[in-house]
Design goal:
Structural class of chain B: mainly beta
Number of helices of chain B: 0
Largest sheet of chain A: 6 strands, mixed
Oligomer: heterodimer
Order of helices and strands of chain A: EEEEEEEEEE
Radius of gyration of chain B: 14 Å
Helix content of chain B: under 10%
Distance between the termini of chain A: 34 Å
Structural class of chain A: mainly beta
Largest sheet of chain B: 7 strands, mixed
Radius of gyration of chain A: 13 Å
Number of strands of chain B: 11
Largest interface: A-B, 25 and 27 residues
Shape of chain B: globular
Strand order of the largest sheet of chain A: 2-10-9-4-5-6
Number of helices of chain A: 0
Shape of chain A: globular
Number of strands of chain A: 10
Amino acid sequence: DIQMTQSPSSLSASVGDRVTITCRASQTIDTYLNWYQQKPGKAPKLLIYGASNLQSGVPSRFSGSGSGTEFTLTISTLQPEDFATYSCQQNYDTPRTFGLGTKVEV
Amino acid sequence: EVQLVESGGGLVQPGRSLRLSCAASGFKLRDYAMHWVRQAPGKGLEWVAGISWNSGSLGYVDSVKGRFTISRDNAKNSLYLQMNSLRAEDTAFYYCVKDRGTYYDSSGLWPLDDWGQGTLVTVSS
């Protein structure tokens, strides 16, 4: 199975900060990497697919980059509603595997 | 608007069975692959099972193979997960998830598009 490793596991930030989260795959996954946002008690929500494609309706302050084994999710200017947990997921092979998540908190 | 509503969760003893259902609306279920993804309380997401649009192919994570069965009824706009021989480690929220593609195991730009709100399965004596 492809292992997905996220770092950091949590981070503290303030409104207005630039935030970067990293996801590494145990083998190359081309650009078949998706990012999800999850708020407490809620279902995950797709933010970015194919490493860098913004899902419809997602604010442009979110962006993704990377290919191969290393990927990043960037929030350019953190907003109050962005405090949540972010998870990466690979679509290169089954089982589809997720990272353990990065909690962005105040 | 896509809606996925799970039901069937609850408290069950180890070794017993439970069947989860997912009612889909707002899209043509028959056009898409579907999945079940679970999340133990306070833990990360884990893909459990997937099924292609016509039930022609399906797959499971190793930890549930031989115990769980995913199925679908496109005519009833419903997805199911039959869970047998349940274990304490199966305790989790179970999410019904719509794929963007038609085959559950397609490699490529096929994210997990839409998620239900989840149903909690607790396995405990």
